[in-house]
Amino acid sequence: MRIITGIYKGRHFDIPRTFKARPTTDFAKENIFNVLNAYIDFEDATALDLFAGTGSISLELLSRGCNSVVSVEADREHANFIRQCTTKLGTDKCLLIRGDVFRFVKSCHQQFDFVFADPPYALPDLEKIPNLIFQHQLLKPNGVLVFEHGRGNDFSQHPHFVDHRAYGSVNFSLFKAPENKEV
C-alpha cells in the first residue's frame, strides 16, 4: 500500500497477509482523488474514513493536508495497523476509533468536510449507509461523501447523488450536502 501524493508521497506500508480487508487499489484511489479535486480542497479539511480497513484512505487524506481525520474500524488487527502507520508518519492528526461504524454514525455529533465509506461489499445494510450519513448530518454544508461499492449498487436516484465513477470492479458514488444545513 502506498501514498499517492502530498507530504507523505511515495511512502509504502506492507499490509499483513492475514488481513481480510482489501485496500482500494492505487489505480482507483488515484483516479477518485483526481475527480475529487473538482469538489473539495483537502487542505485544512476535516475528514471521516468509515470502515477504514488498512487505513489507505486515511493516510492519503493526511498526506493531502487534511487538518484532522477520524478513522473508524471495528477489526482490532486493522486498527492496530492504522495506528502503527500514523505513528511511523509522526502525525497526530488522525483520531482512530475502534468500533462499529453504525453505532459511531448514530452517536457522532461532529460534521466533516469529507466522508469516505468503504464497507465490505457483502454488508447487509450497505445501501442504507448514504442515507444514514445525511440523516445524522455528518457532512458540513457542501461537504462530500464518497461511497465505495460493488457493481450491483445504483445510487443515482438518491437526492444528494452527484456522480458515479467505476475503475475496474471498484465503484464510487459521490454525494454532496446542500449549501444550507437543511438535508
TrEMBL record:
Which InterPro entries did the record assign?
DNA_methylase_N6_adenine_CS (IPR002052), RNA_MeTrfase_RsmD (IPR004398), SAM-dependent_MTases_sf (IPR029063)
What name has this protein been given in UniProt? 16S rRNA (Guanine(966)-N(2))-methyltransferase RsmD
Query: Keywords in UniProt for this one?
Result: Methyltransferase, Transferase
- Which processes are annotated in GO (biological process)? rRNA methylation
Molecular function in Gene Ontology:
methyltransferase activity; nucleic acid binding
